[in-house]
# Entry
Amino acid sequence: MHKYNTHVCIVSDQPIPNYIPVLDKDFRPKEVILLATEKMQQNGKAEALAKTMKECCGAKIHTIAIAGEYDMQEIEDKVLTQLLERGEDKEHIALNLTGGTKLMAIAAYTTFRDAGYPTFYFTATSNEVLLLDKNERITLQPAQIRLEDYLQLHGYPVSSANNIARSVPPGRQKIGETLAIAPERFADALTVLNGDISAAIETNPNTLDILLRKPTVKNLDALLNLFARENLLTRSGNHIRFSDKDARTYINGGWLEEYVFSEIKKIAGIQDIALNVEIQNAQKGITQKNELDIAFLHHNALYVLECKTKNYNNKSEGQAQNELYKLETLKKLGGLRTQTAFVSYRELKPHVRDRAKGADIKILENKALAGLRKTIENWITAKNR
# Structure
């Protein structure tokens, strides 16, 4: 495989096309020169790309600040001057044309071409490198990107204290399957049980005990027996005691996240998937944090899902709108190809679905959960076309 000792990359909001050619061991350069505008330095994208390349690929990183992103003379003066001073053969140094704005890429391409340096272009969907001066294609076989590295590349590192989950207890999956197959049977009982849990937590956040206020709700006994068989709770009359906080969280809606997680994990081609991923913003001066219920990677694209068991009635439908707004903001996490979905155990109202459709947020609700895996497979396939 043809390779270069040095890659010159234009830093942009889309780091994957710069990162994958460096991640691939057979195409990996010894050094990477990053051309970073003031904007890419201020928003942390240049630093995030440099840090991830260094930590995961072992490449030597050198950053060159570019003030005028459309100034060919500056690129020639700052970049080509340094390259020529190395005394290295031009054929060993290549420009990765994939990053940056179109005008900056054109300026860089023109400068490098006129100076006799090779250039290449990377296609993220097929992992192909196009050697523009040779009219050749190379298919890369890079290691699969971990979610932590992917998010860090885009300026949203996982919080250091967050131990994200990549597996769930197998016994719990049976509970999720039972509840997902028959939402009309258990929905009302879950609403009552979750309401009792939330009320108890408001009084004492650490409590493991609740009192059933409506113990005669249809199918509540069957629901509690599902959880009891996995030793998640014990019941004495109208009194419920959870085995621990994890069990309480699982029963209070966490079961849906684990069910969705387990179904997606069975899909071929999933690079990485995790539950309850807490991220922060690497941009200086911003302390914003977010928790992702489920995040997974497929074909180097990020998918983010929010999972809710809540019954969004007339009084609380504004909360459904807030969840959609959160998903809209999360689309910026992984670049232009990021996809989001809202998973609801209860049926949503038409205007909520319309809002989601307008924001290109996939809705997975109610009876659709029984065939969740196939639905998500079709969704992924459609987005990869």
The chain has three domains: 6-143, 170-251, 256-383. The chain is about 40% helix and 25% strand. The first strand starts at residue 6 and ends at 10.
